[in-house]
Design a protein that fits this description.
Length: 134
Amino acid sequence: MTLVQTQPRPADADSVHRPAVEVMDAAGPQVCDDMSVEVALAVMAAARTVRLVVCDQDGQCTGLVTRTELAAVRESSDYTDRVRLRDILGDHGSFASPVTTMAEAEHAMRTRRLGVLPVVDEQGSALGILALSR
């Protein structure tokens, strides 16, 4: 793994200095943090996506959830239909700004063991997603 990206892009010496806003992919579906796990899984299935951007009531990004994470929550013995996305976000509060360089984002993702990192503006609104390439 060398660059923070989701699709192949031309590699050059300056690519690690490119800002996140130049290499991020669309944020994809955004849902409210009071959504239940079951509804979130249904949204993912309908949108044919493996992750959702989670926002609070004010539209500020609070994190990301993946289908794998939600399936694990649903299969746990503590699961009830009252579990909301805000209850399971845990340490998903890491974000990149649009001016974060690819090198900085990659370092943050590796340090925190994150596969994806939301890019948010000054108001906390999700602009896109960065993901480690494999």
